[in-house]
Amino acid sequence: MPRFIIERQFAEQLDLDDEARLSIKAINDAEGVEWIYSFLSADKRKTYCLYEAPDEASLQRAARKLNIPADVITPVDRIDPGVFA
Length: 85
Description:
By secondary structure, the chain is an alpha+beta fold. The chain has helices at about 20-30, 55-65, and strands spanning about 5-10, 35-40, 45-50, 70-75. This is DUF4242 domain-containing protein.
């Protein structure tokens, strides 16, 4: 499955309660995307999120349904230290 990094900028601090977390999972599942992990900036206003998804459109639909930004979506390939050993 293709991988993507989504850069998100939040106007206010990101604060997710349990209900919001369950909603994210349900919507992502419906769109066929899997949130792998995210990096959160120290001020909690910017995230870089790694996803697996069939395509960029699936990620855009999920973001719209969740009412969260998807400012930049970049397709990525995995590289790890093993390729240099």
